[in-house]
Write a structure and sequence with these properties.
Helices cover about 35% and strands about 25% of the residues. By secondary structure, the protein is an alpha/beta fold. It starts with a helix and ends with a helix. Strand 5 (about 85-95), helix 3 and strand 6 (about 115) form a beta-alpha-beta unit.
């Protein structure tokens, strides 16, 4: 019941986020939550393992249209920053590995899809709207957040990411 309420509220918020999404804004959290999740192949990814790199942490779901529509722009950003200290971790919220794997088969993505089946990670990060994305600096501290769909490959957004890498 609790998971169903979480998913329903997330669906409603995702629909409203498309209309009222706020600009990329400084992270409002006090402490960056830890992140430790397995990808589709069972490999564990820890945010702490990416210290020294700027990390884009994206919370998404296959049923979330804005999430699916924003994925290609995240991939374009990743490709544009290839060879630089930048990584993407896409966290699937509350779904099975099969659902995430079926989605991954529909488009080429060069970043890992992590599984947050019990939604603990998304709740810890405050990802109540999907998509929810956080930019974590090389020091491991979340610096920016964005709730809703965004073209991550736009020059002004890319400039924020590149500045964070310095």
């Amino acid at each position: 019941m609790r998971r169903r309420q979480f998913l329903l509220s997330t669906i409603l918020l995702a629909a409203s986020a498309r209309v009222s999404a706020q600009p990329l804004k400084p992270w409002g959290g006090v402490v960056t939550p830890p992140l430790e999740l397995a990808d589709l192949d069972g490999k564990t990814h820890r945010l702490a393992d990416y210290r020294g790199k700027t990390v884009l942490v994206n919370f998404w779901a296959t049923w979330c249209t804005p999430c699916r529509e924003e994925m290609p722009s995240i991939e374009r950003l990743r490709v544009a920053l290839a060879g630089k200290p930048f990584v993407v971790l896409a966290v699937n919220v509350g779904e099975s590995a099969d659902a995430a794997r079926a989605f991954a088969a529909t488009m080429p993505l060069g970043f890992p899809l992590l599984l947050d089946r019990d939604t603990r990670a998304s709740r810890a990060w405050g990802a109540r709207v999907l998509p929810a994305t956080y930019l974590v600096g090389p020091d491991g501290v979340a610096r920016f957040s964005y709730f809703g769909e965004l073209d991550w490959a736009k020059p002004d957004v890319r400039a924020v990411v590149e500045k964070l890498m310095r």
